[in-house]
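subagent[fold] <- orchestrator: predict structure for attached chain, return C-alpha cells only, no commentary.
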Amino acid sequence: MPRGKAVEIECVVDSRSVTGEGAFWDKRNSCLWWVDIPAGQINRYDPSTRENKACDFGEPVGCVAPRESGGLVVAAKSGFYFFDPESGRKESIGDPESDKPGNRFNDGGTDRQGRFWAGTMRETAPKSPDGAFYRLNADRGIWKGVGGFFTTNGLAFSPDGETMYAADSDKGVRTIWKFRYDKDDGVPTERRLFFDTGSRPWRPDGATVDADGCYWFAGIDGWQIVRVTPEGAVDMTVDLPIERPTKPAFGGAGLDTLFVTSLSLNLAPGSVQPQAGSLFAIDGLGVKGLAEARFAG
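subagent[fold] -> orchestrator:
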C-alpha cells in the first residue's frame, strides 16, 4: 500500500462479470466504459449517479473507446466496428484476422493522437503466439504493428506519447516491453524489456499511465495493482479484495480515482471472493492520471 495515505477501495458495480475488462474513462461524458468480454456486454458506469448501463453487442468484445464523432469504436471477435450504444447500430470496419477464426481481440486503447490500438489472442487450444497489436486509423485504415504474442495486454502510452508499452500475460512469458513510438506515423520500434514478472506473485494484465509517467498494471493472480516507474522499478502496490484484477483506468472529476475491472473465472480453490468480476474504485492514492484521447475517427 502507499505509505501514509488513506486508500479507500469500493466495489461500485457488484457484478459477476466473467471477464470484466477494457476500462476507459470518457472525460467528455464523465463516465467509464468497460466490457465483459465473452458476454459481449458493453457497460457505461456513471459515478455521479452510480448507475451502470449495459448493452449487448452480440459477440465477444475485447475493448472499446469513445469516438470524436460520437458513439464507440469496438474491437470485437469479428474485427473492428463503429457502434452506437443508444440505438444499437453497428458498422463493420474490417477484420484483420479473418483467416484466424480461433483468435479474438483482447486489450487495447488509444494513443495520444487518437489512433485506436487493439491486440488479438488465440482463445482456442493449443496456445500459440498468434496474437498481434493492430492500429486503426481515423481514415479506417488498419495496420498490423507488433506480433508474436500469446495474450496481448498492457497497452499504454507515456504522457509525451513517445513510448508505447505492451505486455504478454501468458504464464510462460509474463513480460512487459516498451517501444519507441513515432507520434507522427504511429509506428512502434526498438522493442526493449521494461519489466519481467517471472519472479513475482502476479502476471501483467491491462495497464494505464499516470501524469508522472509511471505505469500501472493489474497484477492478475496476485491480488494487487502495481505501479512501476519509467525506469522499471516497483514503487507502489495496492492490495485488492479480488485475486484477478484485469484493467486499471484513472477517472473521476480530478482523474484521481483508479477504476479496476476484474475476472470471476478460475479463482484459487477455496478462496472467498464474492465480488470477483466486479468493478472497483480506488481513492486516496495521491496520484492523478491523464485524460485518454478519443478515437479521432
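orchestrator: received. Logging for downstream: The chain has a mean pLDDT of 96. The chain has no helices and 24 strands.
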